[in-house]
């Protein structure tokens, strides 16, 4: 059994291997009459696109998205939207040396254990290339959510170097190659990653996604909680090893009175004095910003030899010579944003219904 | 839309409110011919049962489980298993003072925002009492998995007091009231929690669940990954704010060569030199132990007044006088084990099929 | 794998065996704030209840439904509604003779082939007793749909004796023991069924369900079509062998111009000159009445010996001595109505959303 | 909400409009290591392909299928299989006259009622062109089922002209343009359809699908019954108005002893003296052949003017000038076969599991 779909009412099915002819997705459940063109999806793909700086893989894919169905005269029709990106820059020969051996930390061996066969070229189905389709689907999800909901992501930690949250600037995020909200941290990260890259190594990172303007009431007890669906979505991104919401793991160290978010009414509007909860109580959004962080492990594809075995079980050292990201966490930022957008769009449709209720914004 | 089911082939649906006549669940998809009696479920419920020490709520529920269907002459028949626990010790009057006001950090206000109505008695549907049914379902899941898979949990941190992992003993876990694997930490935690309890406060905790003997191949790319399903499952437990697998958030600080798990063959058996991955690669189990940790926030129900509002929006101070756990994380240990068992049973059935393939153990 | 749930947003899970301690269901996804008491469900159960005439099984079950969750102070809360009916009149000894042999036409042998075990008492899980829970769930579905949708069923054929449709009277349906809309047919059917009953035989029937007031737009292409979901629902009822919508099988004999339903506007309202389509085009409701018919085979449980085998494979003659219906189709009428109600409620919630949009009627 | 997927473990998602750039599907859950090439799918598509005789639409589409993912070195990998067929022969101008008016009996008006927008070219999403992808998916399903299961379909009735079942020949089915199993009926149908075609009219039909070699045990009570899933699948095919299994509607006229299928053991093998049940008891396959019939209404697209309205509500006469089938039931035969194959493959995977258990045939 394979499981290449997620979502209930806004449902995304992705397909494609890293070095096949194309990758794609089907977005099912998008409401009708939403203006949609390829140009409205492309900018989000460009943010994730590789080959844009020396800190991301040099595989240079234009990642041009095509809409094959579900849109008529520039508007969605309520029927499934098929999106396709052709793979153009496949240098499969790079991977010939790993056809018969397992890269430690990679899914190679797991796919062989499960299926007894794998498309080894570039990681095949397990390649992070699949996340391009998440970003494309996320672009559609954002259109469903409308302008009053903003979903933004940032890189808040590379290795043990964390940003200073007092210097947080969303404008800064757009200006640097790291999606870093702390301008003073940027040169430090540049030096640090340069060093790691030159050593043929890689490093982990932490990403934070913030959704603002989310209306109260999204999420459904008990097994459709908004936070548990977000956790599943983020953990499904390649290389993610942990997810936390609001105070997250720090909540373990707090007392009840420290972690409470006192409630008051301000100018006729429900308000909270703090947001330890990260915008979700009992699995349901409260109207506060939703804060999620996830940890990405260092890329397993490194130039430093790793002890491993070949498919016969013989010991061998594996060096991954392909084009890879020294910090795969950087490109995970737009992916995390897209997953948040998809989950929110799904819960929004579940909460409000789709037809007749759809408006240009979530708040009317 | 409510979502009170989880799992695909092994599917659990829970129902019931804290102070209604009963709580229950339907376990659908259990293979036939598995010996099952109420006595095989009860011990797991007893581990979660409240009223057993001064560190858990004094609500004393016998939590006697009844099997209402799906079992014939002591064996499962393949039809849905209905389990029911009557609520006997409901002291609803304790909650009369919170009928009209919202406890900060609780789901009260979220349910009202979503549904415009809530059963306020003891938290109603959002009460952790629901987790009793997860434990009951988990007991059945364990029977599906068989003896060669062990799923064990432990409390590894209360507040900022972490156990010493060098002193880890599974035997010790069974001996103390904290599920603590570090015997020397137990008296410290006792003093610490006594102090917190006397202050009418509460404290967070971290739980670790370890599954050993899990065969390789469980989990399905891309949106049925074993780790993302585990993350969703753990995050769905009341008060959980973070989930991590293997190195988890620490992976962000590691280099590729530090985080790699070298592969070798030992005595004809696939082996790994380390387990930073936590037993899962590409969303698929590798045969290594699966290590998961989750953080539980401090109980929101405390005796220290919290600023809040009533249902009219007027400011009020809320004190929760009901019977509550100073550290709700303690009782989350058997719940986390149960969720792990349910997720593994579901993926095991997905992987191997159910009929004809079911054996007393997963490894034959 | 068992599959004891149906519906997407309005989701019903049933459990229980004919001669177990109880049967029940969980209704998940019912919108909040709908007035609901046991007294609002009971009348529908009474219509299906056995033991009411000599033409239905003499098993006399009071079929008292209990609500165990999801309702607070007389209103639904949006959480799962657990319903339970205790089995009180189990005469299991009636079935002792079929414990080791297979009744031809019954599910006995199929369950054994699939599961290798079966609760043989009264058919166990395969008993039509399960349909009581469908009726109970249907009663809730009706409350979601509101007063402007009417769902009514009738028996239109027993054996080869069809009613005269020109004499159709819904009032008549309520007056006789057959749910027969043709008063002149009633005495004929009485004589006919008396004869069959005395011979220890049974006979098939055709049921028609009509839903009026259904708004346009329910149903979703391509695999969530309203008619295909209705077909699945009706075919899931015990003993049903065929389902048709609108003209049904007769459509095969018609020409395009005969089968077309011309469209016009009458008094500002969309209208159709005929309803060959049965109210559904392209899987989507058009606002016309939905007409569905399904055929029920004769009860397999008869007093006339049938050649069969025992569980060892030895030839044996089977006579079913239990209490059975000579025409099980009669009691299928309220079940068919209930399935229609459940499917419509599910599609209605899918179409309009649940929260904020719920009204006392579907048409505002 | 749109619902463009069906199946649980073998899951097919289709997309595409009649006159968009392409149509396609994603087949998720196909087991690994099955030999698969485009050439193994194409012959089935050719059977359904239009433009092959004067009795089917003259739209001449080569319907060349491309595999875009999920296959590596000629074998399935367990990852999703993306299939695509480019639309090449779109004569959209044919449909310009129906852009603003509703064809009676067509889905046009239903889509507008539901979505407020529709791709009117050739029926858009509601076109029977979508069924090409069902046939493609069915070809893969057949590979999963293996050689010992045969799934064959035939046209058994056009208008009121039924075949003589005594002359049934599967060989004959392959020889004529009607999939007719009764050679003597072929010239009659030719004359009849010629006459209807010349009148610019259309006619309905009945299709029968027979699956032989299906192992016992497929299908799951209560809401995953094999027959109810088949009913849903067949009813989802364009223009289908009725589905019946085994005796079907005729069962209503039979007595219990007439409809029973006596059981015996023949040469150590479970056998039945008859097959009124159509191979399914209690929703579970018994090993007997599965017989299903479905009725297809006459094509709504005819040259005879039909009273209708335009999108402003003004009265108008509609003539459909596009290229259409006088008897759309003919091309429904391979579609019905494909749906049967998909449903059986899904239930087979549910029943036996996918990995490790997959064999070249279902019977080992």
Explain what the structure shows.
Four copies of one chain form a homotetramer. Chain A has 364 residues and is an alpha+beta fold. Chain A is globular. In chain A, helix 1 packs across helix 3 (131-145), helix 1 crosses helix 8 (332-352) and helix 6 packs antiparallel against helix 8 (332-352). Chain A is built from eight helices and 18 strands. In chain A, a hairpin with a 2-residue loop joins strand 5 and strand 6 (75-76). Chain A has a five-stranded antiparallel sheet with strand order 1-2-3-7-4, with helices on one face. A five-stranded antiparallel sheet of chain A has the order 9-8-10-16-11. In chain A, strands 5-6 form a two-stranded antiparallel ribbon. The two termini of chain A are 41 Å apart. Chains in contact: A-B, A-C, A-D, B-C, B-D, C-D. Chains B and C meet through strand 2, strand 3, strand 6 and helix 2 of B and strand 2, strand 3, strand 6 and helix 2 of C.
